Amino acid sequence: MSDSPSKVPSPLPGPKGDPGGAPVGRRVLLGMLGLGALGVAAGGPIQDVVAKGVDTVAQNDPTGLSDLLPGNRFRYYTVTSNTPEMDETTYRLRVDGMVDREKTYRLSDLAALPQTRLVQDVQCVTGWRVPKTPFAGVRLSALLDAAGVSPAAKAIRFRCFDGAYTESLTLEQARRPDVLVATSMEDKPVTHAHGGPVRLYVAPMYFYKSAKWLSGITVTDEVVPGYWEQRGYDVDAWVGRSNGRDDAPTV
User: DSSP H helical segments within 6-162, as ranges?
Assistant: First the structure.
């Protein structure tokens, strides 16, 4: 259901995330289909429990059948075998590099800052799109201003607590009002499967720029290509204007 762009390397490995995870059995998928329908009908706490189950199943499904699960609007990608789960006790976001004041944020610190909510389409470079997806969090520009960026700085490098994924933006791109350090997705806390508790959201670019499991923001003097850019994807990933694709802008 995803297409491989003609001028882009093969799509991200394993359309359902962790290629090394234990495959989900057919009975589990069928059971989740039934539970998913129940959750959609019932709503409330039951739907929340079912949604978490859908995330778990979809991450470990090599068959693609979990696309049929109610409420499963996204594909799941990861480049490591597993990623630790973080909460208020364990999560920290570090802002460092070419700044006047290095900063460390807990989840509660981020929640106490002014929040911005955006509703735009999400576009993956492999072809799928999820329309009108709400994200909310702190503008990246606000965190940069709080740290005091050096006049010689030119770019931002992002680190993730999966221990492998990285991303980058120019300083000009990072200061756009539609670039968030997001703690909410679809008006709920960002789940672990979707890169929570904190992920990057770069609204006008292909979704690989919106790094999951964000743990570090380092101000640098040059753009350092991220994980997939080192493997052939464009560093500047504007939707419809990069990677050989002509998708409509994410508005």
Answer: 26-42, 44-59, 107-111, 140-147
